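Figure 6 in text form: structure in, sequence out.
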């Protein structure tokens, strides 16, 4: 549901967030729901504004139960440095709001109920969003860290699987919490959405990898120079497997050996991509060598 436009950014409410507000309404604490709405909105606007500052197009924010999604250009996800800065912007905004809340208390401008809830919302947002699990901010930071070491596809899989694991843990813990009277239905709703969102991130990993490859070609054409990483592979390795360790902002040269470990030749990353697009992922890398 579209709410409106703020600073050039369209604001949308996810159905799960609407369900969370409905729970606040039924419980008679809609004012708290509106406080949570404001906290999430500031958190996501921080993401969008930092992304824009870093040169990434971002014109849409969707509010979710545990935070939200600032829809940015695909170039953000395949640029580990800029994704890290953008991901940190959300929790940083919550820390700023926590400091503001403490300052208001020190000056006597403190609402005993709502101000305490406002503080709790921000603390929860920071703690929850820094979990190393996609699609949370901590998961994006963790994915960016891993991508420069093992490649973006396995990094995305790892962070997304952690998201699914955390979702299951939170869901079962919330059942116990409801039985003990320690939490409400908002926690299992959040856990279910986390499971859904992390599963979606995992399924999108192969497409993200192809975007990375295309963007890297554009960067090399634009800048004219890029650091190189060398790999060694036997001639029978299929291209799909060979490309898994490809890293962002590195151009790859692959030395191909035969089954007796004898040198056959060198294949460039651009050769591999072209062959993959035209013939698929199962082509052995040895077929790219002109004997």
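Output sequence:
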């Amino acid at each position: 549901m579209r709410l409106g436009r703020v600073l050039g950014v369209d604001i949308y409410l996810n159905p799960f967030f609407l369900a969370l507000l409905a729970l606040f309404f039924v419980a008679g604490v809609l004012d708290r729901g509106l406080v949570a709405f404001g906290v999430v909105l500031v958190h996501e606007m921080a993401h969008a504004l930092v992304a824009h500052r870093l040169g990434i197009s971002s014109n849409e924010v969707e509010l979710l139960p545990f935070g939200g999604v600032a829809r940015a250009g695909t170039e953000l996800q395949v640029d580990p440095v800029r994704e890290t800065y953008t991901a940190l912007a959300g929790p940083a905004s919550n820390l700023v709001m926590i400091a503001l809340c403490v300052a208001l208390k020190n000056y006597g401008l403190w609402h005993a109920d709502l101000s305490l809830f406002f503080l709790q919302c921000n603390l929860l947002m920071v703690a929850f969003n820094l979990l190393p699990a996609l699609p949370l901010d901590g998961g994006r930071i963790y994915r960016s860290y891993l991508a420069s070491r093992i490649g973006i596809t396995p990094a995305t899989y790892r962070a997304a699987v952690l998201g699914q694991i955390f979702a299951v843990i939170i869901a079962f813990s919330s059942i116990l919490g409801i039985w003990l009277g320690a939490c409400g239905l908002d926690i299992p709703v959040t856990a279910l959405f986390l499971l859904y969102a992390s599963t979606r991130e995992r399924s999108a990993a192969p497409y993200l990898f192809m975007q990375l490859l295309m963007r890297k070609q554009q960067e090399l054409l634009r800048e004219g120079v890029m650091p190189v990483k060398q790999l060694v592979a036997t001639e029978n390795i299929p291209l799909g497997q060979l490309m898994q360790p490809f890293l962002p902002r590195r151009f790859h040269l692959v030395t191909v050996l035969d089954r007796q470990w004898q040198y056959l030749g060198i294949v460039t990353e651009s050769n591999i991509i072209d062959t993959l697009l035209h013939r698929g992922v199962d082509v052995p890398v040895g077929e790219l060598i002109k004997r």
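Caption detail: The chain has a mean pLDDT of 81.
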